[in-house]
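BUG-352 | component: ligand-complex export | severity: low

The export step for S-adenosylmethionine jobs runs without errors, but we want the raw record kept on the ticket for reference. Input record follows.
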Amino acid sequence: MGGASASHRGEGGNGLASPDLERGIVPHLEDAFGRRFRYLRLSVTDACGFRCAYCLPDGYRPSADAPSPLSVAEVRRLVGAFAALGVEKVRLTGGEPTARGDLLELVAAVAATPGIRAVALTTNGQGLARLARPLRQAGLTAVNVSVDSLDERRFEQVTGRPLLPRVLAGVDAALAEGFAAVKVNAVLLRGLEEPELDRFLEWTRRSPLSVRFIELMRTGCNRNFHEANHRPVDWLEGLLAARGFRPVPRGPADGPAVEYRHPEHAGRVGIIAPTSAHFCEGCNRLRVSSRGALRLCLFGDAEVPLRPLLGSDELALSLRARLAELVGEKPRAHRLAEGRSGLAWNLAGIGG
Ligand code: SAM
Ligand code: SF4
């Protein structure tokens, strides 16, 4: 098994033949463990103006000889190939995607790709108050905003920027635009105590937000920070249960977040715990770096450059065939428990 297979059995081959596509039969990407991939996370830049203590504690340092990020035309070809293989959702991430001056063009190109139904953005929220409306108009359907603290002082300590009010204005702007989903990401750190946690929970009472707490992941650059600040998710699970939140039953197509609901709250709370058992089993995503390298696992040891196949529309079939072949090689699970975070020096290089 593995690679791409036609969604109609009996088609044979690797599902890439153009007659399949012409007849509206979309092949799907599947790995050797039966996991299907309809979701691509695409980093569009490594640059970021924040200095999150777990990600870019010394700020973004561009290297003079680094290749430029993928152009709009390259992104269009890349997403076209994934969509022809059944990918339906693309998340643009970074670095900080709003650092790109052509972000609206990128969103429009992805949204216009046949087969793509959802275009999401993960952002630190810095530019969202200004960009929420044009992003929506360009075809963006969902936004995740990182808000690690609701306390101005702690927010500045964690992110290196005194911008909590601006980020919260960005979340409000996104809610006002009526995106299909607005989610808040908060990395679960020591220092987040019960009163602040309750403010996050209270936020979901009145707003149709999903607040998702992400377990701090150890990467190449944050080993000491991780040691000092990692907080196990069972602390949070216990508190949610005590506050009347109940887990939402998981479906087979659900991603790695476990969601919780409270009968009196408009929104939800989620927990994303990369070291938990089900995290890899439920993996439904593929990642491509801002320079066009496919990363089969966030914490894997290898990435494969796709850029040589992104320079011309004529390479479309070769690109699809290469993707199908590579996906068949996706590893079963990461090896974080053995202290191995692979190529992940930080997540700004691949988008989390
Ligand atoms: N700059 C954007 C942002 O912060 O939302 C997008 C890129 S950032 C790498 C994507 C997500 O990864 C953010 O929610 C961030 O908090 C999370 N992240 C980064 N490093 C992490 C780590 N070591 N452990 C857990 N989450 C991490
Ligand atoms: Fe920038 Fe996002 Fe990394 Fe924070 S988590 S430093 S906002 S890329």
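Assignee comment: Attached the raw record above. The CA atoms of residues 111 and 181 lie 16 Å apart.
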